[in-house]
Amino acid sequence: MLRPAFLVAALAAACPAHADDADLAALRAEVKAMKADYETRIQALETRLATAEAAAKAAPPAPAPQDTASSAPSNPGAFNPEISVILQGGYAHLKDIPERRITGFLPNGKAPGSTRGFSVDDSELVLASNVDPYFRGYFNATLNDGKVGVEEAWFQTLALGQGLTLKGGRFRSGIGYQNEQHPHAWDFATNNLMYEALFGEGYGNDGLQLRWVAPTDLFTELGAEIGRGANFPGTDRNTNGVGSYALYGHIGGDVGDSHSWRGGISYLSTRAEARSSTLADFAGTDVNTAFTGDSKTWLADFVWKWAPLGNTTVHNFKFAAEAFRREESGSLDCVNGMCGTTGSLGAYQSTQYGGYAQAVYQFMPLWRAGYRYDLLNPGSQDFGLNNTKLPQTGYRPTRHSLMVDYSPSEFSRWRLQYTKNRAIEGQDENQWYVQYIFSLGTHGAHSF
Amino acid sequence: MKAFRLFAFLVAAWPAFAHAALSVFACEPEWGALATELGGTNVKVYTATTAFQDPHHIEARPSLIAQMRRADLAVCTGAELEIGWLPVLLRQAGNAAIQPGQPGYFEAAQQVALLEKPAVLDRAQGDIHAAGNPHIQTDPRNIARVAQALGARLAEIDPGHAAAYKTRLADFNTRWNAAMARWQAQAAPLRGMPIAVQHEGFPYLENWLGLKQVAVLEPKPGVAPSIGHLAEIVAHLKIAPARAVIRAAYQDPRPSEWLAEHAGIPAVMMPFTVGGSERAKDLFGLFDDSVDQLLKVAR
Hints:
heterodimer, A: mainly beta, Porin, elongated, B: Rossmann fold, 10 helices
């Protein structure tokens, strides 16, 4: 209200007190003209507004946001490899068995799953990235107190084409089904007895792998590997050339929308030189043995998965089974106990079998239950001259495992497992496991 | 080494596969349908998933590897939708033509601007996608944009039929624009309609039709809601009512049905993609049905 009063005062001051009528009339005319001018302008604006409003009503709804390529600021870290870390550990309630050797099988020196109470398993650190348009690199290390292991470190071709992929470096062999899986991807807290007897955990090699996928509707894959062959059942040998080779083939497909399957045959040939293991002689004394010879393993694997209409969210089912036959022939040197301190060299020949079958069912979202049966057959084991010192056995190791797991998300899992372990003759063991698996970082993609 | 020779022989003797038509591997049904619209008889389309499967969670099945092996063009959504399975297929198929960066690899999400880009990337937020919401196919304007790029891509990798692709694209554009005008006219009453959704799968549909999303059933993307959480939403809907709760065909019906019963609103199963309902036989049917489903609850 102050302003008009001020204006009036200003006008009054500006207008000379003695202004005559003619001046006043001219002023009035001017104000009138200004008023008319503004009114026409306001009218014009109102019309324009009305037109615009009408146009807006008639026009199609606001278009979806246009293609605005987000111009992210340049980030020197953008080319960093995909990083993920797997944390794994838990609690195990086991019998106190100082040395766990599967009865009837030459031990591989790695006795897994023997820590009682709380423990942290190896943490896995994974780095992976495309190297360039032609190669991909992958690095997987396991870390634990005082030890770092390079589980895998390989390159893989991206652009060979024709269904061919070449992998080189240290990698998990493509034989069998479970072999390529790291422990965090297993369906149970413990390894199956077959892989434990055959490889300890899984068969890895330093070498080359060539895979070929056939251009057919039926999935057909053939693979060949050559490598150093330093791992059990072979040993590291100071030689040039190829230490071990593996061949495998897989076929697979779908039945309708709900079922899919894959099956295959694999073969692994390797050589051992003075592969040491500890056995008990007839007197029950531990003797050190060294095997030199050939080891040939055949594996058969089959996996079948079901989900209603292929939708795994609520219910899904997985069945997997594998079986093997291993032949080893050569010589076995044994020292100590009945073999004497100077040692006793005999021929060694064995043909052994085994396998496992497992079923895992997701009975409600996030919850799965599973059962696995393991069976090994020591087959024939001939120690030649040492048959009088080392006992043969007809004992068939078995294991029954039941598990329930809960996965709050894709990145976390809790598992409870009960195992009836009869892998060691004379030991009837009830095992309980509580396990957690957490995966941090990049969203991993899992194979079938 | 005998076995080695046999292996080498098998590899060499396998008959070379002769391509009659361009093989298209479509990750989702909508892109399979679009490739069929634009390619006609010049393409042979394999669709990797169905409308009843969750595109976030697909097994990298052997059959998919076999199909990827022979594909000349892979058409996928991208934006991390297929991050759990597509990389496995791409790496195991041994097909150089469809690797990311090659003309044979096409990502639909790159053709449109994505909504809901998360400001913070933290897995505590659930299964979020760093690039934004990948469910772009629920807006026909996005389909139109992807069609332009896909048509051009088909012509690029199969230049012999470039003219045919161009003609088909022009024809599709005409029919699609007419259909869009029709849907928009029909859907006028839907503007401002409040809805609840089970999964954050419909932001593009909401943006197109002007629907108002008042509640999401999943507490975090990809996390199934608990009964307690659903009860909270029922309470929330008393203050901000919704006309319906909608979900995609592949989603577990139980959460939205529970909510529908307790909040007294209809539960609507949207086809979400081609094949998701009886009427959604192709892209046109998909939107005919989607608009009709929503109109039913709007009345």
